[in-house]
C-alpha cells in the first residue's frame, strides 16, 4: 500500500515545483504578471508576453526542471548502490568526465559528435574506470569514491587544457559547460533529456521493488528474490544515463545530486528510496537557483552551477562532520 506520508510529501513538492516554474517564467528583466504568464502558456497572451514567456524563458525553465530531476535521481541511485551519502555523480567524477567529453565536442578537439552523446560517453567511461579500480568492492566502500575523485580531477584538468589551447571565442562558447548554466539551452537537447528521463522513470517503476531491497544486506536481498548483479548494473546504468543527459544540457551543476536526495530522506518515511521526492526536490532546487542567478544582480547573470555550489558546499561540510542519523533509504 502506498505510504500516506510519502504521497503527501510528493504532492506538496509537486505544487511547490509548479509554483516555482510559473514564478521563474514571470520574473526577470521584463516582469510578467502571474495571470499573464498562465495566459501565455495557453497561447492567449499578447505577442510580447508570448515571446518573453514561451520563447525566451520556457526552454530554460524546462531545462532546469528536467536536469534537476535527473541529477537528483542519479544521486539517489548512486548513494544507494554505494551505501554512502557522498557517492554522487559530481563527487565521484562522473560530472567532470561528462563535461570534458562535451567540451571536447564544443571546442572541436578533433570531434564532431553532438555534446549530448559525448557527455554520455564521458559519464560511462568514468564509471567504468572507477568500477574497475574499485576491484571486488564494486560500487561499495570508499575505494570507489576515492577512485572517482581521482578520475574527476583528471577530467577537470583535461578540460582546462583543452580550453587553454583553443581560440578565445571557442573557449567562451565552452565556458558555460564548465560551471553549469541554463542560458540558451537548445530545445533539441532539452527534448532528448526529457525522453531519457521518461525512459529512466519507467525503468525505475518496473524495478522499484528490487532497487529498494538494496538497502538490506546482500544475503537478505538475495533471500527476497533480488538478482543483485543485474539490479546493480541497471541502477548504475540509469545513474550514468541520467547524469550524462543532464550534463549535456546544463553542464556540471554541483551538489544537486547530493542535496536533493538528502532533503527528500528528511521528509519521507524511511524504508524506500525516495526517488519521486528527490526528483521533485532536485527540480525545485534547480529552478530556484537559476531564478536567483538571473535576478540577484540583474542584468549580470550568475550561472546556476555557482549558485548551487555556494549553497551546497556548507551542507557538504556538515555531512562530513556530522554522522548520518538515518539510513540511506
Please describe what this structure looks like.
With 329 residues, the protein is an all-alpha fold. The two termini are 18 Å apart. It has a single domain (4-321), classed as ABC transporter involved in vitamin B12 uptake, BtuC (Orthogonal Bundle), CATH 1.10.3470. The relative contact order is 0.17. The chain has 14 helices and no strands. Helix 5 (115-134) packs antiparallel against helix 6 (142-164) and helix 5 (115-134) crosses helix 11.
Number of domains: 1
CATH topology: ABC transporter involved in vitamin B12 uptake, BtuC
* Helical segment count: 14
What share of residues is helical? over 70%
Which geometry do the CA atoms define? globular
CATH homology-level superfamily: ABC transporter involved in vitamin B12 uptake, BtuC
Low-confidence stretches: none
What CATH architecture label applies? Answer: Orthogonal Bundle
Query: How is the biggest beta sheet arranged?
Result: none
CA radius of gyration is 20 Å
Number of strands: 0
The CATH class designation is: Mainly Alpha
Order of helices and strands: HHHHHHHHHHHHHH
Overall pLDDT: 83
Tell me the strand percentage band: under 5%
Structural class: mainly alpha
* Termini separation: 18 Å
Amino acid at each position: 500500500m502506498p505510504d500516506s506520508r510519502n504521497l503527501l510529501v510528493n504532492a506538496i513538492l509537486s505544487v511547490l515545483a509548479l509554483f516555482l516554474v510559473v514564478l521563474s517564467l514571470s520574473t526577470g528583466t521584463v516582469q510578467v504578471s502571474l495571470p499573464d504568464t498562465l495566459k501565455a502558456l495557453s497561447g492567449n497572451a499578447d505577442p510580447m508576453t508570448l515571446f518573453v514567456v514561451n520563447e525566451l524563458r520556457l526552454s530554460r525553465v524546462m531545462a532546469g526542471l528536467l536536469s534537476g530531476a535527473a541529477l537528483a535521481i542519479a544521486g539517489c541511485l548512486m548513494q544507494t548502490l554505494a551505501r554512502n551519502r557522498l557517492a554522487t555523480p559530481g563527487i565521484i567524477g562522473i560530472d567532470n568526465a561528462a563535461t570534458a567529453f562535451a567540451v571536447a565536442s564544443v571546442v572541436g578537439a578533433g570531434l564532431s559528435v553532438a555534446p549530448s552523446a559525448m557527455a554520455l560517453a564521458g559519464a560511462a567511461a568514468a564509471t567504468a574506470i572507477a568500477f574497475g579500480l574499485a576491484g571486488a568492492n564494486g560500487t561499495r566502500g570508499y575505494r570507489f569514491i576515492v577512485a572517482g575523485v581521482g578520475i574527476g580531477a583528471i577530467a577537470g584538468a583535461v578540460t582546462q587544457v583543452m580550453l587553454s589551447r583553443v581560440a578565445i571565442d571557442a573557449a567562451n562558447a565552452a565556458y558555460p559547460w564548465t560551471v553549469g548554466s541554463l542560458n540558451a539551452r537548445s530545445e533539441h537537447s532539452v527534448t532528448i533529456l526529457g525522453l531519457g528521463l521518461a525512459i529512466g522513470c519507467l525503468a525505475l517503476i518496473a524495478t522499484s521493488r528490487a532497487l529498494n531491497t538494496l538497502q538490506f544486506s546482500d544475503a537478505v536481498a538475495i533471500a527476497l528474490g533480488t538478482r543483485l548483479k543485474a539490479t546493480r548494473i541497471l541502477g548504475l546504468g540509469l545513474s550514468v544515463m541520467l547524469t550524462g543527459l543532464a550534463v549535456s544540457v546544463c553542464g556540471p551543476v554541483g551538489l544537486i545530486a547530493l542535496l536533493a536526495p538528502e532533503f527528500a530522506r528528511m521528509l519521507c518515511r524511511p524504508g524506500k528510496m525516495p526517488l519521486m521526492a528527490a526528483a521533485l526536490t532536485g527540480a525545485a532546487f534547480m529552478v530556484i537557483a537559476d531564478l536567483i542567478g538571473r535576478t540577484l544582480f540583474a542584468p549580470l547573470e550568475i550561472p546556476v552551477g555557482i549558485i548551487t555550489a555556494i549553497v551546497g558546499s556548507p551542507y557538504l561540510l556538515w555531512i562530513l562532520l556530522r554522522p548520518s542519523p538515518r539510513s540511506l533509504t
